[in-house]
Every structure is written in structure tokens, then in C-alpha cells.
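Q: Hi! Curious about what HTH hxlR-type domain-containing protein looks like structurally. Here's the sequence.
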Amino acid sequence: MVDRTDEDGPTRAIRWFAETVGSEWHLRILHALRDGEHRFSELERRTGSSPSTLSRVLDDLATTGLVERRVQERPIATYYRLTARGRALAPVFDAVETWADEYRDA
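A: Let's find out. The predicted structure is below.
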């Protein structure tokens, strides 16, 4: 096991970020929610995720405070959207997209 007690602030921050949103599915779902609230089925379609993966990742993202769930009673529907904490990731996604556009085929 790696001793992380001597990590500096930037190293600790990057590790925390990677553990929180670093999986492909976490990133896909966060990106899909950037343009607003979506139903579960819309997120399945937009991300290509299986229902079980989508459910698990949405639970993870809700636990970390990046996504919130809203239940509508009539007609019954469940919606997901980014919290303020999740929306704060927008500049990160913008930077990643810019970087990928520049270096993807390099």
C-alpha cells in the first residue's frame, strides 16, 4: 500500500478529483448533464450506458454532491441535474475539450 501522508496539495487534489469523477462513465454522465436536467432514459440514450451502470454512477455522483435527483409525481418521472458543485466543473470540461481538439490526432 502506498503511503500518501507526504503528498503535497496539488497531488492530493488531483488524486481526489480522479477518485471522484475519473471514471469514463462518471465523466460521460456529468458531461451529458451540462445542458440541463434529463430523465434516466434520456441519459441512457445520450451516454450509451446500461441501466445498471447508469443507476450506480448516478448514485455515486449524488453521494459526492455533483448530481441531484428530482421526482415529479404527476406524471411520475425522475429527473437528474447537476448541483452547483457539478456545474462548477464546466470550465474543466471546456479545458479538456480544447486540449483534446488540439492534441487528439497528434
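A: A fun detail: Strands lie at 38-39, 67-72, 77-82.
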